[in-house]
Design goal:
By secondary structure, this protein is of the alpha/beta class. Helix content is about 30%, strand content about 20%. It has a nine-stranded parallel beta sheet with strand order 5-4-3-2-1-9-8-7-6, covered by helices on one side. The protein has a seven-stranded mixed beta sheet with strand order 12-11-13-14-21-20-19, sandwiched between helices. The structure holds alpha-D-galactopyranose. The site of alpha-D-galactopyranose has 9 residues, from loops.
Length: about 675
């Protein structure tokens, strides 16, 4: 797997500081407001402003007629005030004249219905007409501002794939066929990969292949998976097209904002990461989840994984409530600092917000901003200003790296593949199992990397493989090799069952159960027994499982726990096997959090990994550079906590001699010198 290497131009984008920035949509305000805005930005310490994200209708009010007056003015104003610009290419949402003139650019859903203009991002990723118009705009913008001294970064489109990733129109169908042809070369190979002999699906020519449009019964899962792969690649191709236009006239680093989050799964960012100059992510606290703070830290650690450990940027987050959840919960005092600190602790060197000034009109007028409707006499504004000052105090952290000896494997392809129809249980979800595994490590105070299948695992002592359903042979072998060389792996149910074409992994010449890990685990699975919706199952060590159980047959493994009730009472639930110089553990159910935490604690001790556990509600993460260790302690709990340490505490700027005390709800960052100056 190609991992991200920053382009030379991207070096030191943070300028040895933690960047404080925001989206700014000045076109929704009269020009008189802009001066106040920029003066307040200076007061808050804003250093980077994303503009022109949705600028198309303003820049090109009629086809081919461009008006750069307001964009010129706002860039000049920001530049005068020493605020750098993160310049949107402006293509995120086409103006109404374009879809009126060319309705063929509109996206079509699986059931053939069209998604109309009126919101945003209503364009088909494959549409040559859309692309032609978009590239014309990009080229105008890039030529005009490509060497402007204020521009620090290019921001391509916006959250590509947020709404329009999957388009099933005829143009997309033709592009899908081209993608398939380059993947499989011959139609016979495609037939073989998709197993089309079943249900009479065999294709005679490429022209017969369609996107997986709405069907009467379950679609072919390999067909569906390839369409998701294609759709991610198609938008990546679109990104590359904008990139090429920008690169032809500008040397400024180029990026786009990813959505590494629990509710959007449209793009395989492992494939995108090598192509952007800087990894940038948008993350909002998702109060629909049971444990939003875990999801936040998983997302941040995964984003660092995409950046291959290099500093990354939080391109968008919210000071308080968003406006797109069913109930938009405001942040309580201190929560903003804790969430931001968690991103920085996990490698972010830039913290930017959507948006600068809360809107008065439009779909997002109830979304929080740095400058709320209430103005500067408000909790949010005071917190925004305080945050700017905190980020300045944290500037020594910039450029340092997070070190981890444990990793969780995560794969967008498996997320898509597990979600296919006609599986043993609709409750199996790769992301949820990744979160479960990650939570067990987090509760033990262990910093965790998130890695793709096929990653080099040599730096880790413990790796968890959570419901990673589809793996290529090389990816499966990399896991076994890691264990043979002395590593510990914890594999959870529904992992390694299928190859990358979703063929169950089995030797066709004899009866044998599917799975890549029978030898590694010293165990194999005879039959799945998924649990009912709210059912749980007790294990004989007092723990419990949900979602899943199965008949595990042991060959060389030792049984660590057995199911104690239900149909599988007496059957192994958790087994462990020595393999080469390492150990492999298999968990045949969705283990409860406490038991998973305890199991992980035991394996961490064996693997020689020492966590700083102050309980699941206190995050302790360390960033290091050649001279310093920065110990972040983020206390979400109701109690004061303390850890040993000596150095300077950056948030309060006081020295600490022996014990760092962190009051309830607060954040502390201890700078410990590694070398004496
Ligand atoms: C996304 C988008 C922004 C805005 C925010 C609201 O991140 O990029 O334009 O809609 O969500 O949370």
């Amino acid at each position: 797997m190609e991992r991200h290497q920053p382009a030379p131009a991207a070096h030191n984008w943070q300028r040895n500081s933690i960047v404080f920035g925001c989206d700014y949509n000045p076109e929704q305000w009269p020009a008189e407001v802009w001066n106040d805005d920029v003066a307040l930005m200076v007061e808050a310490g804003i250093g980077l402003v994303a503009i022109n994200i949705f600028g198309w209708a303003t820049l090109e009010p009629r086809a081919g007629e461009y008006d750069f007056a307001s964009l010129d003015a706002i860039i000049t104003l920001l530049h005068k005030n020493d605020i750098r610009v993160n310049l949107g290419t402006g293509t995120a949402s086409p103006p109404p004249w374009l879809s009126t003139k060319h309705p063929e650019i509109l996206p079509v859903m699986a059931d053939g219905t069209v998604r109309w203009p009126g919101a945003r991002q209503a364009w088909c990723p494959s549409s040559p007409v859309f692309r032609e118009h978009a590239m014309r705009l990009v080229s105008k913008v890039a030529e005009r501002y490509g060497s402007h001294p204020a521009v620090a970064l290019w921001h391509v489109s916006n959250e590509l794939g947020c709404h329009n990733a999957l388009c099933y129109c005829d143009v997309s169908a033709a592009s899908f066929r081209r993608w398939l042809e380059s993947r499989y070369r011959t139609i016979e190979r495609l037939n073989d990969a998709w197993g089309t002999t079943f249900w009479s699906q065999r294709y005679g020519t490429w022209a017969e292949v369609l996107p997986p449009r709405a069907t009467l019964a379950a679609g072919n899962p390999a067909h569906v998976l390839d369409f998701e792969r294609f759709s991610s690649d198609e938008l990546l191709d679109y990104y590359r097209q904008e990139l090429a236009v920008i690169r032809s006239v500008s040397a400024i680093p180029v990026t786009t904002n990813f959505m590494v989050t629990a509710h959007i799964r449209t793009l395989d960012y492992w494939r995108w990461a090598p192509v952007v100059d800087l990894i940038a992510n948008d993350h909002y606290v998702d109060n629909r989840l049971e444990h939003p703070e875990r999801e936040l830290s998983f997302s941040a650690d995964l984003t660092r994984g995409l950046a291959n450990g290099n500093p990354w940027m939080l391109m968008e987050t919210a000071t308080s409530a968003v406006s797109w959840q069913p109930r938009n919960i405001a942040k309580v005092p201190g929560e903003l600092t804790r969430t931001v600190a968690s991103h920085i602790a996990r490698g972010a060197d830039g913290i930017c917000f959507f948006q600068w000034r809360a809107s008065r009109q439009g779909a997002e007028k109830f979304h929080s901003a740095l400058l709320p409707h209430a103005g500067t006499d408000s909790k949010i504004w005071r917190e925004s200003v305080e945050l700017g000052s905190l980020l300045r105090r944290l500037s020594p952290v910039a450029g340092s790296r997070v070190e981890a000896r444990a990793a969780v494997m995560f794969s967008w392809e498996s997320w898509w593949a597990v979600d296919a129809d006609s599986h043993p249980s609709q409750d199996v979800n790769h992301l949820r199992e990744a979160h479960r595994a990650y939570a067990a490590l987090r509760a033990n105070g262990v910093t965790t990397d998130v890695v793709p299948p096929g990653a080099d695992l040599a730096d880790y002592s413990l790796v968890v493989v959570p419901a990673v359903y589809s793996l290529s042979s090389a990816e499966a072998t990399a896991i076994s090799d890691f264990v043979a060389a002395g590593g510990t792996v914890i594999i959870t149910f529904f992992s390694g069952l299928a190859d990358e074409e979703l063929r169950l992994r089995m030797d066709v010449s004899r009866a044998n159960p599917p799975g890549a890990f029978a030898e590694l685990l010293g165990a194999w699975t005879e039959e799945f027994f998924p649990l009912g919706a709210d059912e749980s199952i007790v294990l004989d060590d007092g723990s419990s499982g949900s979602i899943w159980s199965e008949v595990v047959r042991v060959t060389t493994a030792t049984v660590l726990a057995r199911f104690a009730d239900g149909q599988l009472a007496g059957h192994p639930a958790i087994v462990s096997n020595s393999f080469g110089s390492g150990r492999a553990i298999y968990i045949a159910t969705a283990l409860d959090d406490n038991a998973f935490g305890t199991l992980v604690a035991r394996e961490l001790t064996r693997a020689g990994i020492v966590g700083t556990s102050l309980g699941p509600d206190v995050e302790v993460v360390v960033r290091v550079n050649a001279a310093d260790r920065f110990v972040f302690v983020i206390n979400h709990s109701a109690d004061e906590v303390s850890i040993a340490g000596t150095g300077t505490e950056l948030t309060t700027e006081v020295s600490v001699d022996g014990t760092l005390v962190v009051p309830s709800g607060e954040v502390r960052v201890l700078r410990e010198q590694l070398v004496s100056s």
